[in-house]
């Protein structure tokens, strides 16, 4: 019984302290030779923070151009984000509910239609 009480208290302290932490959305600074910069379809990575979601922080990719190939515009190649659906928990009316979110994980070149 004491283990259960300890676990509940520990989770409560963790939850309250986690909710009190500042939650900021930031863009990651990457090196010039990073694959996200040297790819045919370059991208930036932004860490999106949401205090009412678990996990609180998730990375999201933004393509630098919708129709480019290494920064050069092209009528034959378009850059498109690769989307992944991630299971998350959302705080709703003081309880955690399973949900899903679509996040971009990379950018890839595709032939223009």
Automatic annotation (TrEMBL):
Keyword Cytoplasm: no
The keyword Repressor belongs to this UniProt entry's keyword annotation: no
InterPro entries: Cystine-knot_cytokine (IPR029034), IL-17_fam (IPR010345)
GO MF term set: cytokine activity
Primary location: secreted
Signal peptide: 1-20
Domain of life: Eukaryota
Keywords (A to Z) from UniProt: Secreted, Signal
Annotated GO CC locations: extracellular region
Localization, UniProt: Secreted
Family assignment from sequence similarity: Belongs to the IL-17 family.
Name of the protein: Secreted protein
Source organism of the structure: Magallana gigas
Lineage, broadest ranks: Eukaryota, Metazoa, Spiralia, Lophotrochozoa, Mollusca
């Amino acid at each position: 019984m004491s283990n259960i009480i300890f676990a509940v208290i520990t989770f409560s302290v963790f939850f309250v302290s986690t909710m009190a932490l500042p939650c900021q959305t930031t863009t990651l600074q990457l090196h010039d030779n990073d694959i996200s910069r040297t790819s045919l379809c370059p991208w930036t990575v932004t860490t999106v923070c949401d205090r009412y979601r678990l996990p609180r922080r998730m990375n999201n990719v933004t393509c630098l151009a919708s129709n480019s190939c290494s920064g050069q515009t092209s009528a034959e190649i378009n850059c498109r984000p690769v989307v992944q659906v991630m299971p998350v928990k959302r705080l709703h009316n003081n309880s955690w509910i399973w949900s899903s979110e679509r996040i971009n994980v990379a950018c890839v070149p595709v032939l223009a239609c």
